[in-house]
TrEMBL record, chain A:
Broad EC category: translocase
Lineage: Bacteria, Bacillati, Actinomycetota, Actinomycetes, Streptosporangiales
Species for this entry: Planobispora siamensis
Major location (coarse): membrane
Membrane topology of this protein: Multi-pass membrane protein
Catalytic activity: a quinone + NADH + 5 H(+)(in) = a quinol + NAD(+) + 4 H(+)(out)
Keyword Aminoacyl-tRNA synthetase in annotation: no
Designated name of the protein: NADH-quinone oxidoreductase subunit J
A Pfam family of this chain: Oxidored_q3
UniProtKB/TrEMBL annotation, chain B:
Enzyme class: translocase
Protein name stated in the entry: NADH-quinone oxidoreductase subunit K
Membrane topology: Multi-pass membrane protein
Annotated GO biological process: ATP synthesis coupled electron transport
Compositionally biased tracts (Low complexity): 120-159
Amino acid sequence: MTEVVPSYASPTGQEIVFLLLGVMAVGSALLVVTTRQLVHAALWLVVCLGALAGCYLVLTAEFVAWVQVLIYVGAVVVLLLFGIMLTRAPIGRAADLDSGNRVVAAVVAIATAAVLVTVVIDGFRTAYAPLDPGAGSAKEIGATIFRNWVLPFEALSVLLLAALIGAIVISRTDIRGRS
Amino acid sequence: MHVVYPAIVSALLFSIGVYGVLARRNTILVLMSVELMLNAVNLNLVAFDVWLRDRLHGGQVLTLFVIVIAAAEVGLGLAIVLALYRNRQTVDLDRLRALAEPPSGAGPETGVPADPGASTDPGTTPETGAETPVPVPGASRSGAESSGSAPRSGAEPGSGVTGASAERGSGPGNADNGGRDRAGGGGGRSGRGGASPDEPEHTVRVEEAP
């Protein structure tokens, strides 16, 4: 967007904070997919999502950050922990959490990372986004949701209701089909 | 803020999610990896929304929508996982092969002694036992048909009967063996998978509040 791009050699404070949070998110995500204990994977997921919420805060998307904390860290991880508990997963160290195709998966993931990082660096090397606070506050986002995005918002609420009813129907045992 | 930084972080998160989806066996861990991939997309959306200064805030609103859809997806996914666990007693993705093609040749219990042409050689039974630890009724039928249609040489009737009975005796042992070398020493897992997991009397109800 802008013509003059500040150099990469002198990062601003925001960039340093963002990079630290990004390293934290990537590291805890690596632990999520490599840890041997199922419950620890869920707890490292909390760390990863929290660091991502911090990234959103640095990017001035405050409302998205708090929604991330509320829904992901609050609801989704608790739901995953419920799933771990209800499937009677082994609590301690389990040896069989990885399937046999770890090597193939690592090769595919490294290839994906290489392609994406190369393309992204090549494409957005000169892109610079100056951060001005307040652009993603609850007031702005609320106004734009209820002014411009009302129809998708309502459709999404119907979708959420359908998913809720579907989850109840699937998980209850005394509801049978019509047979 | 350079746009490259969030883009690189989200690319790395996405590929970590790809690794988790491909390499994990537990269904809940696969769901967690899917969450990682969705979060990578969210970070990209927010970063590009900030960069492009969208007047409608399309990126951030779409991020909120993706978060809501991810919540719905996790709810439905866990309901499916719980139903699966109730019926199969396992959430292991490697053991859920009911939709796979039955292996050509014969399953472990399909060697019918009345059909002398159906004596499959015992060399093929270990990998068939390892690939179908869950006996599916459709698979046994089609396995019997394919084994009946496959002419094996050296099938005199007497050896057909003994071969079939021997391989039936070694069938569950082979399934256990396959489960053990797949799990890499998970003793409790292989014992649980060895007892054929889709009989309805093994169904364990998940405790629910009335």
